[in-house]
Design brief:
- The chain has about 190 residues and is of the alpha+beta class.
- It folds into two domains: about 1-80, 2-Layer Sandwich (Alpha-Beta Plaits), CATH 3.30.70; about 80-145.
- Helices cover about 45% and strands about 20% of the residues.
- A hairpin with a 2-residue loop joins β2 and β3.
- α5 (about 125-135) packs antiparallel against α6.
- The longest helix has 20 residues, at about 145-165.
- It starts with 7 loop residues before the first strand and ends in a 7-residue tail after the last helix.
């Protein structure tokens, strides 16, 4: 049994594919989701959590399991992996101008990660790439690389599960075999 003193509260949101009606809210409660707040609106459907757990990983995975056992599809976990310059500034506690200077190379050591989405005027980066950059090049920032990488991997697994349902069984087996192989990271 885990000592209650070792537990922390983790805040995150699960974005769902379906709206949450009264029946769905009841199913969620019966599945153990008693620490989530339901959000439904034009931007989509989600459940915000303030979950007590021994780790972020345990909190997120247990929440996904409970939500899915109630019959809902989890599309992604937020805070979102894709971030704008404004999002980065907010997460690292810097001004937008400071972050823009780092991105352009006007300040800092350079080597800023390449954008992965968006457009020239509104680029988006992977938070895990940005967190790794701050960890490597800027010791003044406290960025939890482990949490950023975990959330990125969780969202990739959720997206892969959706994609796997749409391809033929042979291709699915090939991809599962590929996913089961791990590579050692260089030291």
């Amino acid at each position: 049994m885990v000592d209650k003193a070792e537990m922390d509260i983790y805040r995150f949101r699960l974005v769902l594919g379906d709206p949450i009606d009264d029946d769905g809210a009841g199913r969620l409660f019966e599945a153990g989701v008693d620490d989530g707040y339901l959000e439904t609106g034009p931007a989509g459907h989600s459940i915000g959590f303030d979950r007590e757990s021994i780790s972020l990983e345990e909190a997120v995975v247990s929440a996904i399991a409970e939500v899915e056992s109630a019959g809902f599809e989890v599309l992604k976990v937020e805070p979102d992996e894709l971030v704008s310059a404004a999002d980065i500034a907010e997460r690292v506690g810097r001004s937008r101008q400071s972050v823009s200077s780092l991105i352009s190379g006007g300040r800092g050591p350079g080597h800023w990660p390449r954008p992965v989405a968006g457009n020239v005027r509104s680029p988006l980066w992977r938070w895990s790439d940005v967190a790794a950059w701050f960890q490597e090049y800027d010791g003044s920032q406290e960025v939890d690389m482990r949490e950023a990488s975990f959330l990125a991997a969780t969202n990739e697994v959720l997206a892969a599960r959706r994609s796997l349902r749409r391809i033929d069984p042979h291709a699915r087996r090939l991809l599962r075999a590929l996913a089961s192989k791990t590579t050692a990271s260089p030291v």
